[in-house]
Amino acid sequence: MEKELKLMKGNEAIAEAAIRAGVDGYFGYPITPQSEIIEYLMEANPEKTTGMVVLQAESEVAAINMVYGGAACGKKVMTSSSSPGISLKQEGITYIAGAELPCLIVNVVRGGPGLGTIQPAQSDYFQAVKGGGHGDYHLIVLAPSSVQEMADFVELAFDLAFKYRNPAMILSDGAIGQMMEKVELKPAKKRNEVLPEWATTGKPETRKRNIITSLDLDPEAQERFNLKLVAKYREIQEKEVRFEEFDTKDAEYIFVAYGTSARICQKAVQLARKEGIKVGLLRPITLFPFPKKRLNELASQVKGMLAVELSAGQMVEDVMLSANGKTRVEHYGRMGGMIFTPEEVVENLKKFIKGE
Amino acid sequence: MAEITQKDIIKPENLVYRKSKVMTDNVMHYCPGCGHSTAHRTLAEVIEEEGLQSKTVGVTPVGCSVLMYNYIDVDFQEAAHGRAPALATAIKRLLPDRFVFTYQGDGDLAAIGTAETIHTCNRGENILILFVNNGIYGMTGGQMAPTTLVGMKSSTSPFGRDAKTMGSPIKMADIVALLPGTCYVTRQSVNTAAGVRKLKRAIKKAVDYQKKELGTCFIEVVSNCPSNWKMTPVESNKWMEEHMFPMYPLGDIKVPAEE
Question: Could you give the CA distance from residue B48 to residue B194 in angstroms, rounded to a whole number?
Fold first, then answer.
């Protein structure tokens, strides 16, 4: 079959991929820089073709709770937003994690704190990978670095979310959301007709009623549930780590960067190598689970690791935990919607090497 | 005359009432005299009589009725505080042939969930919202609710609700009746047998309207809270009639055009 190639914005690619992945429902609220997702879906009107529901909610809070309602019916449902909106969704996200519901949440990150800026940033890393809302929980977090991955990760996120009954997040940023690239689209899948046995779909006589809740007033039972979640996250950490390496084989130094930063670092690796600096790049694709094991191995090989992020230094903490004292780990970043150039990254690598 | 035993009385011809098959055997946690148990039972009876058990998805709130799913034998989702109508919106959109309802108290529906209530009604989602209004936060121990009457004492209005600083009781049924999305808005009570029968009729109508996709049905049940009102059940019902009903008068506020 001939490949279906299109030139699309990252946000549009997510929307189109959602229709093709057989998503049952999208619930969202406009916010820059990701409004193209809901605009594209409204324009495409998939309710007429695949039956996918697209609804503009009254708030991000309502949208994520619609996702809860739809996910609890066993349906493939998603929402998208950008940083301030994702903060509003945190209540719903922790309830979804507590009720063990699969769903997709897309965060096209912009600079913060507060209203911040509408320009790209990676300053929601902690919120995405460490929980975000209250209680002990994790999302499965995927970090695309191209428009192609924006499209591909929709289906991957749903597969993982349903496999583990756990909410998944695509942690993107304003740059990847807004930029246009060539993207190969997968053929459309039909929506699932068979719903999971745990779903609230109306109780037939053949089974007990299904109750979707995150409440347990018995502390011993709640702790047992917490331990079950811990075991689930451990399994995810063992089985679902994804990352990519560039020029790490002979590397004396390693950049660790994801998403937009990883693209810039790839160019920085080339520039630095022209100057004779043996540097490589490790790009985490899953931010939770984090590629701890591989980074720990590389930490024995290299003289230092530089975490390059569009933040004041968030992922660097996980890099440090992974290296566990085996090598020097430092952070270089820009904030507020500013993006470093490959040259700036190389310059800061040189400073890092000198120990400045 | 021979002594009459329990066995003599419990005969099919003497039975005028039975527990709905849609009720579970779990012992309810509600305080004696509380209206929630009667409201639950009435809803369960309608679900049974309309043959809806296999088609019902309910959404429970945060509040005294948070554990409602222990008592009515249908599929349930437990929502975050105030968000039940958002859950119900998605359930109904994705499973349009199911009977979908939310069951919410005054704090849940009229304070923290005001936006979800208004916008769900405004979109005219084909769901039933059952709103139990007893003018107080029950589960957290008797704090002031948005529907607390002016002058009424609670643990957070110990000198009585002062309208100047604490606002006035909010009449949610009247507010949602103004929205084109609602098709049926009514206020009922469960303090008398007649009231229970009227509520049951109202829920049956809501089932019918939901099938016909006429829009949102909103049934308010004006109720009591003997424990937090610090009254006996009998006193609380008397107080409710004398004070709550004048502020929240019973009866239909809006009926579908076809009726």
Answer: 20
Q: Which pair of tokens denotes residue A298?
A: 């590389």
> What's the complex ipTM?
0.96
Query: How far B16 CA lies from chain A's nearest CA (Å)?
Result: 27
Q: pLDDT by residue (tens digit) across B69-82?
A: 999 999 999 999 99
Name all domains of chain A by residue range, CATH numbers in brackets: 4-194+229-237 (3.40.50.970), 244-354 (3.40.50.920)
Between CA A224 and CA A205 the distance in angstroms is: 30
Coil, strand, or helix at residue A273? helix
Q: List the single residue in A27, A61, A99 with the smallest CB-CB distance to B90.
A: A27
Q: How distant is the Cα of A54 from the closest Cα of chain B, in angstroms?
A: 10
DSSP 3-state of A51? coil
Quick check: helix, strand or coil at residue B184?
Answer: strand
Nearest CA among B255, B253, B196 for reference residue B221: B196
Residue B192: closest CA among B136, B249, B241, B230: B241
The residue in chain B having the minimum alpha-carbon distance to the alpha carbon of residue A68 is B87
Residues 157-216 of A with CB under 8 A from B: 200-205, 209-215
CB within 8 Å: A55 and B54: no
CB B200 within 8 A of CB B113: no
pLDDT digit string (tens) for A118-162? 999 999 999 999 989 999 999 999 999 999 999 999 999 999 999
List of domains in chain B: 30-137+144-254 (3.40.50.970)
Q: What's the gap in Å between the CA of B250 and the closest CA on chain A?
A: 30
Indicate the residue of A69, A72, A212 with minimum beta-carbon distance to B89: A69
What are the φ/ψ torsions at residue A97 (nearest 5 degrees)?
-65, -40
Model confidence pLDDT, tens digit, residues A196-217? 999 999 999 999 999 999 999 9
Give per-residue pLDDT as tens, B184-226: 999 999 999 999 999 999 999 999 999 999 999 999 999 999 9
Contact call for residues A269 and A246 (beta carbons, < 8 A): yes
All residues of chain B having their beta carbon less than 8 Å from the beta carbon of residue A73 are: 57, 90-91, 94-95
Element (H, E) at B130: strand B128-133
Chosen for mutation from B65, B72, B93 (greatest number of chain A CBs closer than 10 Å) is B93
Using the structure block, give the residue that is written with the tokens 């811990």: A230
Cβ burial, residue B241 (10 Å; 0-12/13-18/19+): middle
Residues of B in CB contact (< 8 Å) with A are: 53-57, 59, 66-67, 69, 73-80, 83, 86-91, 93-95, 98, 115-116, 118-119
The verdict on a CB contact (< 8 Å) between B115 and A58 is yes
Question: What is the enclosing helix (H) or strand (E) of B245?
Answer: helix B245-247
